[in-house]
Amino acid sequence: MREAGYYRAMTSQQLKEEIKRIASELGFQRTVIASLEPMEAERQEYERWLALGYAAGMEYLKRNPHFRTSPQMLYPDGRSAIVVSVSYYTDVPEPPPGFFGKVARYAVGLDYHVVIRAKLRELNARIEKIAGRKILAKAYTDDVSLFEQGLAARHGLGFAGRHTLIIGPQMMGTYNFVAELITDLELDADEPYQGTCGKCFRCGEGCPTDAIEYGVGVNSNKCISYLTIENKEGIPLELRKQLGRWVFGCDVCQEVCPYNQKPNPAPWEEFSPDKGAGHYLDLFSILNTESQDVFHERFIRTPLRRPKLRGMTRNALTVIGNILGDCGSSSTITVSDEQQSDAVAKLFMFLKTAPEEMLKEHAYWALAQYDDLKTRKKLKQFIDSEENQTIRDLICAYV
Question: What whole-number distance in Å separates Cα of residue 40 and Cα of residue 165?
Fold first, then answer.
């Protein structure tokens, strides 16, 4: 066991290597040191993306780009940042038969914000032991005004792919969370990693909603992850079928990325589907949720609480409609006649008790996708008795 004095005598480079070793022991996949200098080139690129309107309804992304690209302003006591990545990849099992929606891999376990911040605090405690002093530090991950992608790419955590996700070197791929520990340690910053997508555009070609634009990035207005998580309005009519079975987030651009051929498994049990919501969500369990409080209690330790009950109900209705629309297709999950009839009955019941116009309209849309004569007759009866003119105007596009 080396004495603390040994480490205090280390050079900056030796301390960096020791920090990276400890981070690796804790399960972080890659660790780099970042400067807190303003990211001027990254800010210009970010502002260009904002000017296109591609932040959609995420107003928090539009506020003060200068602050977002100035890490020193985030934590004035900081002198450098330890930037880490950790895999959240887990294998997706075969879907259960019936009405289940898919959950993006990053959200199948416990809330990564809580998990990663705890690991970063542990990292800081171990660094304090070798440094022989108290270290001022703050842990962040995807929850503050910081352009994390730009900071990570500037200092070699990986490079930003056409899908805007950080692609780690040596086939580390994209199934990784990015996080930062900003400290008062004076550490030399690492250089960028020179990676490239080449001519590949599989992410854009595979995106169900054409949300990825070559050389530009992601148009959040079309992105399924935005539409199902951050979006506060209804799912645009022209994009509903493209959601397929994604009830929370989307992994398509990662699933088709060549850099994800051999993803590293998540190192921590907290990211296991057994610990959280899992890879599939019972859609009617969402529709049957009594209140926001009940919903919050169910998903309090997972990322799925983000859209709240209202947003998840909207998502569930859309996916139910897509499953009903696919019934009978040889390419779809097997859904029994009994399950189909039960789903239709529950949707008609939901129409009677829908808490607001937006959700009621999505329920009408879901029923309209089902190619069944009996259902269509009953749906017409409901429409004829619908007193809300706004809803009648909306549903005339598809019934």
Answer: 20
Candidates 20, 35, 116; CA nearest to 71 is 35
Alpha-carbon distances, residue 18 vs 1, 15, 128, 328, 353 (angstroms): 14, 5, 12, 59, 60
| Mean confidence (pLDDT) of the chain | 94
> How many other β-carbons are positioned within 10 Å of the β-carbon of residue 356?
10
**What amino acid is encoded at 158 in this protein?**
G
Question: Which is the catalytic residue, given 142, 282, 326, 342?
Answer: 142
Name 87's bridge partners. 176
Of 173, 176, 175, 180, give the one whose Cα is nearest residue 143: 180
Mean pLDDT of 9-20: 87
pTM confidence score: 0.94
CA–CA gap between residue 397 and residue 383 (Å, rounded):
13
Per the document, the length of the chain is: 399
Burial of 21 (0-12, 13-18, 19+ CB in 10 A): exposed
How far apart CA 362 and CA 317 sit, in angstroms, is: 6
Contact of 122 with 19, CB cutoff 8 Å: no
pLDDT in tens, 168-201: 998 899 999 999 999 999 999 999 999 999 999 9
Tokens 């970063």: give the residue. 120
**Amino acid in the structure at residue 359:** L
Q: Which residues contact 304 (CB under 8 A, 6 or more apart)?
A: 103, 107, 248, 276, 277, 281, 312
| Whether 314 contacts 359, CB under 8 Å | yes
**91 part of the active site:** no
Q: What is the pLDDT of residues 66-83, one digit of tens each?
A: 999 999 999 999 999 999
Check: CB of residue 131 under 8 Å from CB of residue 185: yes
**Contact (Cβ atoms closer than 8 angstroms) between residue 123 and residue 117:** no
Q: Which residues contact 182 (CB under 8 A, 6 or more apart)?
A: 36, 71, 74, 75, 78, 80, 81, 82, 137, 138, 140
Which of 169, 147, 195, 144 shows the shortest CA–CA distance to 31? 169
- The DSSP output letter for 299 is H
